[in-house]
Amino acid sequence: MIKEQNSLAVIIDADNSQPSIIEGLMEEIAKYGVASVKRIYGDWTDTRLKGWKSHLLSHAIQPMQQFGYTVGKNATDSAMIIDAMDLLYTEKLDGFCIVSSDSDFTRLAQRIRESGLSVYGFGEKKTPKAFLAACDKFIYTENLRKVKKTTPLKRYVKTDISKDEALIQLLKNVVEDTADHSGWSYLTHISQTLVNRKADFDPRNYGYNNLRALISAVDTFEVKKDDPFSHDKAVFIRCKRQKRSY
């Protein structure tokens, strides 16, 4: 029996997002559910947004016109917030994807979560921490930009995490807190707990495609499959135990 997918509303702040993320953005959103509603907000009479226009039709994103009535005031934010609240009460949704690096959406994210729905935030690394913390999960859009196939460079550049004490301690704490009596912890449980504790946690921030690759790069942990002879993807992690000296 196929599990029913979550229904998501995608609202994009065109003023605070780049068209270059659109392919990676839609692929990322597909991991969490079906984008039932897709809207992008901005003043489409402004030539600065012309880069978005070619992507709207191919991705079935509905442009929402919002004129800038007052210089220095962002009318787009207000329009997004009003629409989001309307959707919250009129549509059967499981969550929202808010695409913006603007802290003005912090309270909106909190309010949506208070209603029992999930919030996935998408923004640049400059996004204020308050907005990050208000989301269930936050994905940096720098990780979503596609590299052209003609470019010989790899998509992610791995960083040396062996000296990142804060990261290693975070991983150790989560592994130990989710471990069974033998010290082994299910990778899926580790992944979810990491996001619960740090909304913007993402292996791609460190140059790794997935959590298993990131953990395997740290000499602090042991990695094993439940059954090495099966195709089961169940993976378990344990902190390496110190050998006793006699």
Write up this protein:
With 246 residues, this protein is an alpha/beta fold. Helices cover 32% and strands 19% of the residues. It has eight helices and nine strands. A six-stranded parallel beta sheet has the order 3-2-1-4-5-6, with helices on both faces. The protein has a three-stranded antiparallel beta sheet with strand order 7-9-8. The chain starts with 6 loop residues before the first strand and ends in a 7-residue tail after the last strand.
Keyphrases for this structure?
2 domains, single chain, Nucleotidyltransferase, domain 5, three-stranded antiparallel β-sheet, Rossmann fold, 246 residues, six-stranded parallel β-sheet, alpha/beta
Topology:
Blueprint lengths: L6 E7 L8 H8 L4 E9 L7 H9 L3 E4 L9 H16 L4 E5 L6 H9 L3 E6 L5 H6 L2 E4 L24 H13 L7 E2 H11 L13 H6 L4 E5 L9 E5 L7
Parallel strand pairs: 1-2, 1-4, 2-3, 4-5, 5-6
Antiparallel strand pairs: 7-9, 8-9
Helical segment tally?
Answer: 8
Derived from helix and strand composition plus strand pairing, the structural class reads: alpha/beta
Q: What top-tier CATH class of the largest domain fits best?
A: Alpha Beta
Mean pLDDT: 86
CATH superfamily of the largest domain: 5'-nuclease
Order of helices and strands: EHEHEHEHEHEHEHHEE
Major β-sheet annotation: 6 strands, parallel
Tally of extended strands? 9
- Order of strands, main sheet, comes to 3-2-1-4-5-6
- The percentage of residues in β strands lies in 15-25%
Overall helicity: 25-40%
Second rung of CATH, namely the architecture of the largest domain: 3-Layer(aba) Sandwich
- Round the Cα radius of gyration to an integer and report it: 21 Å
Q: How many distinct domains?
A: 2
Q: Give the N-terminus to C-terminus distance in angstroms.
A: 55 Å
Characterize the overall form.
elongated
CATH fold description of the largest domain: Rossmann fold
Identify low-pLDDT runs. 148-154
